[in-house]
Amino acid sequence: MKRIITIQDISCVGKCSLTVALPIISAAGVEAGVIPTAVLSTHTAFPKFTFCDLTDEIQKISDTFEDLDIGFDAIYTGYLGSFEQLSLVEDFIDRFGDKAEVIIDPVMADNGKLYKGFTLEFAAAMAKLCAKADLVIPNLTEAAFMLGVPYNPDYDEEYIKDILRRLCDLGSKSAALTGISFKEGEIGIYYYNGESGEYFYYCNEYVPASFHGTGDVYASATVGAMMRGFTVPEALSIAVDFTLLSMKKTLEDPNHRFYGVNFEEALPYYIERLNK
Ligand code: PXL
């Protein structure tokens, strides 16, 4: 069985970060180790939340893993809350990344705007961390902030390819942009492998709704599928279909939560896809 380690916060309620990564990666039949970077009562889009910083634990946990010779098949990072955490994660990748796929989801922005608490300087530091990745999975807003270019929602295919090349120029071996659409009613993923020069686009139906944590569902499903031996384009496509179904399940339930997607009821589909 493959083992990954995911480094991100745990928001107790809100269906994002670790409360999403753990069930999805476990459902993939992959051991999910965690380094929780902070404990929050909910994610930061709620009007009120507590925040307990666990930065001081990261080094101690990493040292202990090293002493015990514990290794990982993948390192997957999500929401990281401070410059110090970025630098500790960089160090973690240096120590444990040799035999691991490094997947970085640079969670910090969407729809042209940075999330609460993030700055342009932080985006630049996140871009530096992305140099260590085998795969980065930003949305277009995060990519624009990391590259220091204006957010342009009126893009064409050439523009997207250019952004992908620039993401790989940061140092990442490959990059995938989420939420890319060239036609009404469709949305998907655009991938570029900076080593082979291969581009890949996959889309499915567009659901006119947006829920917090959808990016975390997407990235976790990609990591799970990669660890199950699917190629990166296959894993990215499975994650598109699984995320779409999660959104449909959310909307089907008239009493759905105002936060988070109903990925739980889409998990049987994900498991079936991985077992095909
Ligand atoms: O879903 C991304 C995410 C993760 N963790 C925390 C967040 C967010 C998005 O806002 O606030 C704490």
Any overview of this molecule?
- The chain has 276 residues and is of the alpha/beta class.
- The mean pLDDT is 97.
- β4 (74-77), α3 and β5 form a beta-alpha-beta unit.
- The chain has a single domain (3-274), classed as Ribokinase (UDP-N-acetylmuramoyl-L-alanine:D-glutamate ligase).
- It contains nine helices and eleven strands.
- Helices cover 41% and strands 22% of the residues.
- α4 crosses α5 (140-147), α7 crosses α8 (232-252) and α8 packs antiparallel against α9.
- The radius of gyration is 17 Å and the shape is globular.
- The structure holds 3-hydroxy-5-(hydroxymethyl)-2-methylisonicotinaldehyde.
- 3-hydroxy-5-(hydroxymethyl)-2-methylisonicotinaldehyde binds at residues 9, 11, 16-17, 40, 43-45, 79, 107, 115, 212-213, 215-216.
- 3-hydroxy-5-(hydroxymethyl)-2-methylisonicotinaldehyde binds next to β1 and α7.
Quick summary:
With 276 residues, the protein is of the alpha/beta class.
Number of helices: 9
CATH architecture: 3-Layer(aba) Sandwich
In CATH, the topology is named UDP-N-acetylmuramoyl-L-alanine:D-glutamate ligase
Distance between the termini: 18 Å
Largest sheet: 9 strands, mixed
Mean pLDDT across the residues is: 97
Alpha-carbon Rg, integer: 17 Å
Q: How many domain regions? A: 1
Helix content: 40-55%
Order of the strands making up the biggest sheet: 3-2-1-4-5-8-9-10-11
User: What structural class is derived from the secondary structure elements?
Assistant: alpha/beta
